[in-house]
Amino acid sequence: MDARRYRWPAAIAAAAVASMLSSTPASAHTALLGSVPAAGATVAPPTAVTLVFDESLDPALVQVSLLDERSDRCQAGRPRVRGGTVTQAVGPGLPAGAYRIDYRVVSDDGHVVHSAIPFTVAASAHGTAAPSRSCGRPTARRESHAAAGLPGVLGAAAVVVVGGLAWGTARRVRRR
């Protein structure tokens, strides 16, 4: 038998692994449809922030942080998830200043989607700025990025195993 014939399974497996390791997330993942406040908006101090996605989300796989200019957390409690809508309560009396909503969700297909939405809280209606204090809660932002890439790593491992089995089978066939 021609040994070149059995090189194709190994070559295909290697190409699949390279593709999986170098690919970027596909555009079919969960998409943010909008937020309140909207990106770049200037608003009165909100009591909650809301994110609307194009698919239902698993509440256990949703993380939302409202952060001030010093990256102190300003949210109250955990986010509420209903379908594709995520609502995060805000701590009382946000002072005027710049804020951002950091979010991390997991798509139905297992891919992690994350981004940040900046907005500004305006000065009070009396024309004076609210005290420029921070939210006062230390940031605990040490999230594991290893879990974010787990589906891709498992897929790549599966391709390597299948490729290895194909290669091993081809070697056994050649020896006969």
TrEMBL record:
Signal peptide stretch: 1-28
UniProt xrefs under SUPFAM superfamilies: E set domains (SSF81296)
Protein's name in the database: Copper resistance protein CopC
Main localization of the protein described in the UniProt heading: other
Keywords: Copper, Membrane, Metal-binding, Signal, Transmembrane, Transmembrane helix
Ranges annotated as spanning the membrane: 148-170
A Pfam family annotated for this UniProt entry: CopC
Localization in the cell: Cell envelope
Record-linked InterPro entries: CopC/D, CopC_dom, Cu-Rt/internalin_Ig-like, Ig_E-set
CopC domain segment(s): 29-121
